[in-house]
Write a sequence for this structure.
């Protein structure tokens, strides 16, 4: 396995809302290897965006990290002398991101130039009053000190990289003159201009059409190779996950319930929630049959959750699921899941038969094309 | 005209044009669209944003005026100037479900009012309206008590159910569903889709399902029309469309669907549709190539398409 670039251990985040406390993250642990693309899947409210906001120090003002650590290894010795810097057991220098206060200047050296985020909606994330070119060269000025002709040339090069046609003309245009797909490419261009090591994509394609979405995904593939990016991809679309991800982490109620390579998650899922999520895909349904649905709603995170968070919605939950929180069980070196079903004492539970259809998916359309 | 005489045509659209903007510089959103919707089926319109798919739906419920062409419901013309009585009848029979359940419910009105709004001013007694509202709420799997609450108290899936209840309370025959599930979470999508097909079975509803997501369409639709820049380019029964996508734009759309299978996705070849590379538009005709499969194409393309479908 490649070097770990980002290591999250037992991260807990609480939000204070009108005198109540919401436990948004309940002990999340995750390692991100350099150069991989990791997808974080979950329903809205599962905490996937909150988790990623911690990496760039943009947690909302009422949020608080109550425990755990986030170690970022990508900077080498650069921030060694600061109180956040440190050295782990293997002698690799890291930065402890949870210890940097939210308005500290050190964030400016991390946010953008080390870890960068592509926001969800390209329609609202560009400045409508500034030309495209100025918005990209602003990033070049702030992060690399480039000015004048040099910044212009670099901007044109980046625009070509994100496959914008006629970059010289686009440079002088305003965001409203571009389509949604092109705007998303501009947003990606701004992110790339900072030359980050980690690129966080927060549902970058949900606002786009299917055809444009496919193009943006293939662009991300190319950029990942060219700039040797590590990609963290937040989404709830499992089709997109299959396209982009080397590894998948499934989040539910502020916790990662299962993590594995995408083959392991799609072809050999182990957690009942992953089963349910995959079974409810309309792609697996046959016309005339009922689709599988997950009963109920996600648990309220205002209350303390005992046991397995998914137990309440799982018709086949075991007694222990309601009492005690399951630990991670390893299935392979890369695949682990938080479910009591993997305990040697647990009764044998077959996963839904519908999931076998995943292997046939897409295969059919291939035949029809030939 | 009717290729399948057994089925009753509920809605007939012929050569529909819808223009926006001034008369001198019109923007042609829909450019000559013709189709039939049979009673009890689910007819899907798929296309990218700006292709005119929503405009067709809005023209059918008379929100946008048609520029030319005809729309007949039960054999009665419903475009242009119509009698007040017919207008009322259409409001009752044709209802719409909207895309974004967060934006389509009045934030300041209680659920009881939102759902009953269509029934007001029809000379119904208050008790009867209340009874119909609680019946509609129960039909979509909500509790009648919810009538006294406000929209912000509900989750996205519940709100979409309220949107469906609002349509059902009128006892419609025909429901236009404009991207009803694209704003919902994956696990909630399945619930709403199931609800829609269950209601269709119970009440014999006819749906016009508008979406950009072909993967969902395959599950719910009986027939699908593909729209590109205001024109239908292909229309076929669902399985035929997936098995033999004939128009290059349909193929591009199909190849762009992300499949939840990492092995397939990794080796996927994207097809990109370039309208410029395609022959000029003027020689193209909307032709039936058999079995209800329609294609917009030149003479050669139609002949070739006929061989692909019927040959071998």
């Amino acid at each position: 396995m490649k070097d770990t670039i980002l290591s999250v251990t037992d991260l807990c985040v609480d939000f204070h809302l009108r005198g109540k406390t919401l436990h948004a993250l309940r002990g999340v642990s995750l390692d991100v290897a350099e150069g991989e693309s990791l997808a974080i899947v979950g329903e809205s409210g599962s905490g996937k965006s909150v988790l990623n906001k911690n990496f760039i120090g943009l947690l909302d003002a009422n949020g608080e990290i109550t425990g755990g650590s986030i170690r970022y290894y990508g900077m080498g010795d650069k921030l060694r002398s600061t109180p956040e810097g440190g050295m782990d057991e293997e002698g690799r220098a890291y930065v402890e991101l949870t210890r940097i206060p939210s308005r500290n200047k050190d964030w400016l050296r991390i946010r953008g130039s080390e870890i960068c985020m592509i926001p969800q909606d390209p329609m609202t994330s560009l400045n409508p009053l500034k030309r495209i070119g100025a918005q990209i060269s602003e990033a070049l000025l702030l992060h690399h000190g480039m000015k004048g002709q040099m910044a212009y040339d670099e901007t044109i090069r980046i625009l070509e990289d994100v496959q914008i046609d006629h970059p010289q003309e686009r440079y002088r245009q305003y965001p409203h003159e571009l389509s949604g797909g092109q705007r998303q490419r501009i947003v990606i261009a701004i992110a790339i201009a900072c030359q980050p090591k980690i690129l966080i994509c927060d549902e970058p394609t949900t606002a786009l059409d299917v055809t444009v979405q496919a193009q943006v995904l293939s662009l991300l593939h190319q950029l990942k190779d060219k700039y040797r990016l590590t990609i963290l991809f937040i989404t709830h679309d499992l089709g997109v996950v299959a396209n982009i991800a080397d590894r998948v982490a499934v989040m539910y109620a502020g916790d990662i319930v299962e993590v594995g390579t995408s083959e392991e998650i799609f072809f050999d899922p182990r957690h009942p929630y992953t089963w349910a999520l995959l079974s409810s895909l309309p792609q697996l349904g046959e016309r005339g049959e009922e689709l599988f649905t997950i009963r109920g709603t996600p648990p309220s995170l205002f209350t303390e959750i005992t046991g397995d968070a998914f137990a309440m919605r799982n018709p086949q939950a075991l007694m222990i699921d309601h009492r005690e929180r399951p630990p991670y069980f390893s299935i392979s070196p890369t695949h682990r899941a938080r479910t009591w079903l993997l305990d040697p004492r647990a009764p044998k539970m077959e996963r839904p038969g519908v999931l076998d259809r995943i292997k046939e998916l897409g295969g059919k359309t291939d035949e029809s094309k030939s | 005209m009717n290729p399948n005489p057994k089925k009753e045509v509920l809605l007939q659209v012929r050569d529909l044009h819808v223009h926006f903007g001034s008369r001198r510089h019109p923007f042609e959103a829909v450019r000559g669209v013709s189709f039939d919707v049979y009673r009890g089926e689910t007819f899907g319109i798929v296309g990218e944003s700006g292709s005119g798919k929503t405009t067709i739906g809005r023209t059918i419920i008379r929100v946008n005026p048609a520029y030319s062409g005809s729309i007949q419901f039960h054999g009665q013309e419903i475009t242009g100037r119509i009698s007040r009585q017919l207008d009322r009848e259409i409001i009752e029979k044709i209802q719409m479900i909207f895309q974004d359940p967060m934006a389509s419910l009045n934030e300041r009105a209680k659920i009881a009012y939102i759902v009953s709004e269509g029934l007001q001013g029809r000379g119904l007694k208050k008790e009867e309206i209340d009874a119909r509202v609680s019946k509609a709420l129960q039909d979509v799997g909500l509790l009648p008590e919810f009538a006294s609450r406000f929209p912000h108290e509900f989750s996205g899936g519940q709100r979409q159910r309220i949107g469906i209840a609002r349509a059902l309370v009128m006892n419609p025959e025909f429901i236009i569903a404009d991207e009803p599930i694209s704003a919902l979470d994956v696990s909630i999508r399945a619930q709403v889709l199931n609800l829609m097909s269950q209601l269709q079975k119970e009440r014999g509803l006819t749906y016009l399902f508008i979406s950009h997501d072909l993967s969902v369409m395959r599950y719910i639709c009986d027939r699908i029309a593909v729209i590109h820049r205001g024109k239908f380019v292909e229309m076929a029964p669902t399985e035929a469309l997936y098995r033999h996508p004939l128009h290059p734009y349909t193929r591009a759309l199909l190849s762009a669907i992300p499949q939840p299978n990492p092995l397939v996705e990794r080796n996927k070849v994207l097809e990109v549709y370039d309208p410029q590379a395609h022959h000029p538009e003027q020689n193209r005709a909307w032709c039936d190539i058999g079995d209800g499969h329609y294609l917009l194409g030149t003479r050669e393309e139609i002949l070739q398409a006929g061989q692909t479908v019927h040959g071998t």
Summary: The two ends of chain A are 38 Å apart (CA to CA). Residues 117 and 200 of chain A are 4 Å apart (CA to CA). Residues 364-370 of chain A have pLDDT under 50 and may be disordered. Chain A is about 30% helix and 25% strand.
